[in-house]
């Protein structure tokens, strides 16, 4: 049964389409380069209505010149685009929807714009595809969200069009690979054109159009936490975590998210951690951004290796001087890679630790709260037990339930937060706002960040709950309540229940871990200010201006 | 509390070590090139005892010249290496252990060498690290298995050292990225040096040493299945799968593993699938190798896109002529990428379908059987429900249990196999051999390929069991038994039990799906021979010699 040869068709429609568009743009191009002030016309020539457009922008690095240019195209010509973005971060990301240039979105994170996103969906200006984690969004770029256009950012390009992404390689190579190899059009903004690149991060043959941007791409110092703002409650929780989780399970590889809680842990390793004799035994291998608060631990010889999702402003020179610890190119600057670090953070580390705005009584948590469609970035990817994992480490094996025939370990997923949020609202709620948000925004499922069944440990200022030891949802609820303090969830529980859980080793309070609450002092922090971090770094760390204003 | 400045140390030990080794090798180098017959000496110069060495070799592409060279080094100089390999495939991969050149292994797959691996571990010649899936092994290259040395293969290199990997990019960029950016040494064998590359797959600044190999790297035609060998039982199972799984759940994106079962599905899409009116409704997006048996479905307009883990011998010209379907470089040849395709296969497709050698009564399966330490490659990664997934598709949502508050979907994981294996052994066993293998080989956990809780569908020649509908392990066991035929597991079950499961829609037999067993004929295959595939391909497919010998 052989094919009907009448059904002949063209198999090069994508390539022909690309060639046609590129030819129309040709008058504007010199080699691959387009003049800075011609970019809007070039976008109007290269982008067609209903195109799938990936606009680079994760939580740190933004293709800000290209997003501004896109927001200024004539919406009679360029319209109804399907936008794919890791992060909805900048005002013009939403302006393009208000102007009708785009009408559909698939994204991973919308922190700063989450209120406006929810409003625009409500108003029908934006059609919602899906909320993703980074890695599944990248995966779809090769399957059912293959881009027609990529708008991305790099530091430098040479005449041939090779790219140097510097410390902030991030997701650029993945977006470009998905676009370039399916005959999409890759448009890159660079901060400058140079004769010779420090190194090549992306080869010229993957790139179609380059524009030197008016200003360097936007780069947020998102992972910088000023030690001055770390509270003694956070220090107490950090001590509980180091003693009750990291030491107990011999956690050797890990990811820390953003936040003051984990910054406190980082700053206690060289002091409290050292006093416990843990250097070289825990926390040697990291998948993490280059947090300035890691400097004292690095300098004290705690850390063997750090693979980074992205860079961090002001850390460039320090990183270059610490080539034994970071991934650097031959030129001596950081090579980050968001895709590979997310992959490693999912599959190759013992522990993920994060925080949340709400947790229900069964341990499900979400940062999506009423009126805010925030998304989660990488948290669901790293904050779950990857069932495809087959290798073992001591910490992973410690989660084993030995009574099972087909024993296996589990990833350590730690939620760490104070029992009350700002405004004195309990973090523990009977029902997540996410359930109603899903209904209002017409989502297929409630946007849960981390599911209760995946949380192995819960740390609050009350103590630590070893949820992996519980044998039923009812027992998990009890264990959560036992560290929920004076919230309604906590107050329902009797002292007797708490004592039972404690005697079974399902919860531990500071005194059970040999921690005196009165020891949780700011003086225990290895650095108490940004200035201290600079001193630790041998003056190699160069904090952005906004963190210098605290010096006095 | 600022650092003790007496603790000054060097932060460039890795870089200094690399420079020192490279300087010793310098007399052998012209630019990055070493003469073909000097490679053994160069390896002896660059590799030190106890180094962590990644040797490229997945199930298709092998750095065979470098592995042969490594097996010939002086084991007084180069010894006790820690080898990291996706696949243990070639005899010399084990010779290096017999000779003491290496003594520790971390790997993902050992199909052809699985007997000898088990024996060598038993004899103490090989110390076992872990069995991995591809993606977690790649992840660890950035965390706690960072390589000192990479030995990899590419098609071509130019004078500067840029690499062209051609259709078989596979895992090369990932291995090189992990090594190059942590001051490891990257050694590449190429088939030829050329003046100008068709395209650049890997930039020169990531590469240290290049050698033109004596022979081209080994490349297996692993994913080629001769339609002549597809049996009518396999055709029946394929009909059951198309009707009872793909159509029922509107499966739009998927991965097919290797094997005759799935080859039968591919060859039935343009015939049986067409008669059901399913073209354009199912199976549009694939993460899969370029199977020759996909040609009729591609030619009939079934398939929108295919992203490939690797290439397939003989498919090169056909792929180049079908640029609307495959990922191709500007030069017109395939760009594969094992890491990105595994990521997409994990997170971005509706369905994974695979086969196994053993399944226990609860649905756990393994290809590790007595005396064979085979490993699993990518199956556990794609064959589980990725809990970090947050986007939805119709098929994924179909797995939802609507009674739950926090509803979510599930990945479709299908196991498809005849109830008896070769030698008439039942595939269903009370206890997996893997449990004893784990004890004998001193593994931390039994090497299970796919866990029963992740299997949503089981297809045999008896019918399909919808395991995702079962509400307890007991009910899952019943559903499995209902399609286990005349194996002991199947024979224990009463007709009444079967009827109950059938009436509840938990199992379906061919007659329930409107399939007549007598229709399962070879004439239903869109191609019945390799010759037919060539005809379908407009003579673009060029089968390797071993598949031509069947033509008569």
TrEMBL record, chains A, B:
Pfam families attached to this UniProt entry: Mal_decarbox_Al
Source organism superkingdom: Bacteria
Chain intervals with Polar residues compositional bias: 1-10
InterPro entries registered for this protein in UniProt: MadA, NagB/RpiA_transferase-like
Keyword list, A-Z: Acyltransferase, Transferase
The protein's Enzyme Commission number: 2.3.1.187
PANTHER family: ACETATE COA-TRANSFERASE YDIF, MALONATE DECARBOXYLASE ALPHA SUBUNIT
Protein's name in the database: Malonate decarboxylase alpha subunit
Record organism: Virgibacillus natechei
